[in-house]
């Protein structure tokens, strides 16, 4: 597993695909890691050098004391690009990864070719929800992460998908069970404190917004709110819950590739 060394620890990343292809950077959701994109990897890597990384606090990346901010996570993404000598990428992030994508679009648009914002919002959830979750995992440790795993299946996938495709659901929710409670709590705070509702208009790179019709966390209304404020943004809605890249699978992959020119 390659790492880049940041000022305060090591960030885990993976590069797949041809060395000379344009780079597509993928950013995970809260409580997952770079493997959440496994279903897309084969197709994406036919056209792109695919750069995946574990967001700080997740997977095999550094876990530093929280709370984190989305700006800090965005700076980690830029530090990874700088360390790999990559000037520009297309960026695709889901939920918390989509918040990082919004931050990059607003603050570092010169590093982006195209932006894909999946199952995300300019403002996600309420302080009450996030503070409750932070308190629960910090008090309950790894057992609380295992409890959260079971509670999350119903938000991340539709009941029909979860019952028919357990082999796709299990590896994803197991990532949550294995996530560091401290890292998870620090990232919850980053999501809690992010609010890009007034800044979305500063995104000028071509943008695709991906929604899930059955996503109760980051709803299609969240998606339409972003679309109305990002000039020229396209929007697609899949019959899926929160983790639409897993649930919509090939349809997701095909639509994102089409937006990226393939
Ligand atoms: O998925 C994310 O990145 C943030 C929203 C979230 O935590 C979804 C959920 O588990 O409720």
UniProtKB/TrEMBL annotation:
Record-linked Pfam families: Abhydrolase_1 (PF00561)
Domain AB hydrolase-1 as annotated: residue spans: 22-247
Organism domain of life: Bacteria
Enzyme Commission number: 3.1.1.24
Keywords: Hydrolase
GO MF: 3-oxoadipate enol-lactonase activity
Protein name: 3-oxoadipate enol-lactonase
């Amino acid at each position: 597993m390659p790492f880049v060394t940041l000022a305060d620890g090591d960030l885990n990343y993976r590069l797949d695909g041809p060395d000379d292809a344009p780079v597509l950077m993928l950013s995970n959701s809260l409580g997952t890691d770079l493997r959440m994109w496994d279903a897309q990897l084969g197709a994406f890597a036919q056209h792109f050098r695919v750069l995946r990384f574990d967001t700080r606090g997740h997977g095999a990346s550094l876990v530093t004391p929280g709370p984190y901010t989305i700006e800090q996570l965005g700076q980690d993404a830029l530090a990874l690009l700088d360390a790999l000598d990559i000037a520009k990428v297309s960026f695709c992030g889901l939920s918390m990864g989509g918040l990082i994508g919004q931050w990059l679009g607003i603050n570092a648009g010169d590093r982006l070719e195209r932006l894909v914002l999946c199952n995300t919002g300019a403002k996600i959830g309420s302080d009450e929800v996030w503070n409750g979750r932070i308190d629960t995992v910090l008090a309950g440790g790894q057992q609380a992460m295992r409890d959260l795993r079971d509670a999350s299946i119903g938000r991340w996938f539709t009941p029909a998908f979860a019952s028919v495709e357990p082999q796709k659901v299990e590896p994803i929710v197991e990532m949550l069970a294995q996530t560091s409670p401290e890292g998870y709590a620090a990232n919850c705070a980053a999501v809690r404190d992010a609010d890009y509702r007034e800044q979305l208009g500063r995104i000028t790179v071509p943008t695709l917004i991906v929604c899930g019709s059955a996503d109760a966390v980051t709803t299609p209304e969240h998606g339409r709110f972003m679309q109305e404020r990002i000039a020229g943004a396209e929007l697609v809605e899949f019959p899926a819950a929160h983790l639409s890249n897993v649930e919509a699978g090939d349809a997701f992959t095909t639509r994102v590739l089409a937006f990226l020119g393939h």
